[in-house]
Amino acid sequence: MEGHDFKTPVEVMPGVVDWSMVHQPAGNKLYDFHKDSADWNQWKLSSSQVEQYWRDGFLSDIPILTPEQCDLILQEYNYYTGGECSHPGRDLLYEFHANQTPDDPNNILIHVLGHWRLSEAFHDLVFHPKIVRPCSQLIVEGQHDTRLRFWHDQLFAKPPKHGGVVAWHQDYSYWTRTKPQMHLTVHIALDDQTEENGCVCYIPGSHRWNRNGEPLPVLDYTFKAMEGIKTILTEPELEQFSKPQKVYLKKGHANIHHSMTVHGSYANKSNGPRRAAVVNYFADGVVSNTDSFLLCPSGPPQFHSAGNIPKGQKMEGQFYPVVFDPAWIKS
Ligand SMILES: O=C(O)CCC(=O)C(=O)O
Ligand SMILES: [Fe+2]
User: Is residue 20 part of a domain?
Assistant: First the structure.
């Protein structure tokens, strides 16, 4: 949308606002508007946290949302958990999978991308100062503060009793259509995560694993083959792989992980749902590595080319807003 100020929401169909047209927080239900460096710097990580991130490839237990704010977001979540998306703006989603492992009803993983376009709460999560300030410190090794852009969002929901696994993977294996690797992930628990309901597990140090600078290959787009990764690991990697770290995240707390860090989660065997909201970012300067789809591999023709950028050109525009700029803390 040429010439738009990216401050005003746009109604794209009757009763449906596309929040991707707004590149700043839209409301104050999750946090107040930040205006100066003192506001922003409350959320700075300590240098030992930054060191820990670069040693292990992840940080855990970063408080982001109160339980009440999680409940607010979980109301929006209901649009996506009923077997099909019931939001009137569902065509704006990048992807909707009622079950990412479609051949197995006992292994259900609901996976959604692009919901930041459909509701204020998911939109404002993308710009959350408690998320973007730390990420600006972590996104490029050795650089204190970096201009940060939004890549995309994800919901992962595992229903009670038969919630599916997320096979061990590196996120960047799925993202080589953008380069170079300067990406990270923030995984926010909306329910307490436990061993029984399939908490996220990490392999400390695995963010250094690569194949000639490239990530490990994608083995499984259904996320189902939990231990498949073992077939492609070297001896020293297998040795490290045998020491995973389980993270028992509290509701409203987040893990931040490097996009090369190997992680996965086991099935939800508990009586309650296990839901998470994920936001992914990259450093300003990342370019498109494809002339094909960047965000929406399917969907109605009028929407499925959303976010496409010609190969070699900078990732920017409506779908990739700047969420933190070091210029905002120079005062
Ligand atoms: O276990 C999950 O919910 C998915 C974890 C994951 O792959 C991620 O947050 O990047
Ligand atoms: Fe992941």
Answer: no
- Report which residue type is found at 54: W
Average pLDDT in the 266-291 region?
A: 97
The answer to whether position 12 is within a domain reads no
State how far the Cα of 309 lies from the Cα of 158, in Å rounded to an integer. 33
Question: Does residue 283 fall inside a structural domain?
Answer: yes
Q: Per-residue pLDDT tens for 156-173?
A: 999 999 999 999 999 999
Take residue 105 and report the two structure tokens written for it.
Answer: 């009803």
207 CA → ligand 1 middle, Å: 15
Task: Give CA torsion, residues 65, 68, 71, 73, to 10 deg.
Answer: -50
Domain that holds residue 229: 40-326
- Whether residue 238 is contained in a domain is answered as yes
What ranges in 20-148 are assigned the alpha helix state H? 37-41, 47-56, 67-77, 120-126, 129-138
Number of separate domains in the chain: 1
CATH code for the domain of 257? 2.60.120.620
Best mutation site among 156, 196, 206, 216 for ligand 1, i.e. most ligand atoms within 8 A of its Cβ?
A: 156
| Sign of the torsion angle spanned by Cα atoms 208, 210, 214, 216 | negative
Q: What is the pLDDT of residue 233?
A: 97
Positive or negative: CA dihedral 143, 147, 151, 155: positive
Pocket probe mutation, ligand 1, options 152, 265, 280, max atoms within 8 Å of Cβ? 265
Q: Could you report the per-residue pLDDT of 23-68, keeping only the tens digit for each?
A: 999 999 999 999 999 999 999 999 999 999 999 999 999 999 999 9
Instruction: Please name the residue whose Cα sits nearest to atom 9 of ligand 1.
Output: 187
